[in-house]
Write a structure and sequence with these properties.
binds nicotinamide-adenine-dinucleotide, single chain, globular, Rossmann fold
Length: 241
């Protein structure tokens, strides 16, 4: 039987690499997309997949990628960036870059890979939002707003693509120790940060990959337009009285 294909953006490290490993273990052929060519190649080597270098914020490059990749049954729009500055002081360059990658990148990749899913008779798209979409904290510029937008895109695409048997959902990770966030947990900050989580631990990329596996597979066959927070309870509300 031919393997199904999963395309993962930002697969070169962090959550994306863990997703690639899990979906490969689930039996998918994994297309590892990253702006960093060495990282994409390394993940592809680890999972026996296919590396592709692409900046997802570049619509033409993404559409070229869509033409090069022959199949896509699952698309994980995982690549995302953030920058630490107050919203008030965010420069045009900082704000635009984060919006272009997180919001427009998600749109361009969806546009590029939906035709493959239509040809195959269906598919599953998983967008990576963040608990920060609704549980705001100051000092990360437009990042939370971009993740709120990703959740809105998720619902609109779910409505538009449902008739094609394409499901569209989002995952909202909480505090996850990844390559990109490791510096936030140095010294005893790991314990400090864990105290802010109802479950009293920060998460690992595997916690996220497990839920990607569920949303990619047949057990979620009637789930669409949903956002699932994988955050140890952070998004449930405040713990303060
Ligand atoms: N780690 C967390 O705590 C956390 C929490 C909430 C949400 N998220 C979201 O999860 C996703 C992955 O986060 P992570 O912690 O693994 O990050 P990371 O920085 O460890 O990895 C991100 C990967 O995306 C790639 N990338 C960045 N810009 C790209 C672009 N324009 N085109 C293609 N690839 C690009 C990077 O090269 C890198 O390999 C992001 O969308 C992030 O917002 C992470």
């Amino acid at each position: 039987m031919t393997k199904k294909t999963a395309v993962i953006t930002g697969a070169g490290q962090g959550l994306g690499r863990a997703m690639a490993m899990r979906l490969a273990a689930d039996g998918f052929h994994v297309v590892c997309v990253d702006v960093n060519s060495d990282a994409a190649a390394e993940t592809a080597r680890m999972v026996g997949g296919e590396p592709h270098v692409c900046d997802i914020s570049n619509r033409d490059a993404v559409h070229d990628l869509g033409a090069k990749v022959t199949a896509c049954d699952v698309l994980v729009n995982n690549a995302g960036i953030w920058s630490f500055e107050s919203l008030l002081e965010s420069t045009e360059e900082q704000a635009e870059r984060v919006i272009h990658v997180n919001v427009l990148g998600t749109m361009w990749c969806t546009q590029a890979f939906v035709p493959h899913m239509r040809r195959a008779g269906g598919g599953s798209i998983i967008n990576v939002s963040s608990a920060a979409a609704w549980t705001q904290s100051p000092g990360i510029g437009v990042y939370p707003a971009t993740k709120t937008a990703v959740e809105s895109l998720t619902k609109t695409f779910a409505l538009e693509l449902g008739p094609d048997n394409i499901r569209v959902n989002a995952i909202g990770p909480g505090l996850i120790v990844s390559d990109g966030t490791a510096a936030n947990y140095e010294g005893n900050r790991m314990n400090e940060r864990a105290q802010g989580v109802p479950m009293r631990r920060v998460g690992s990329p595997v916690d996220i990959a497990n839920v990607v596996s569920f949303l990619a597979g047949p057990d979620s066959s009637y789930v669409s337009g949903q956002v699932m927070y994988v955050d140890g309870g952070i998004s449930a509300g405040t713990q303060k009285r």
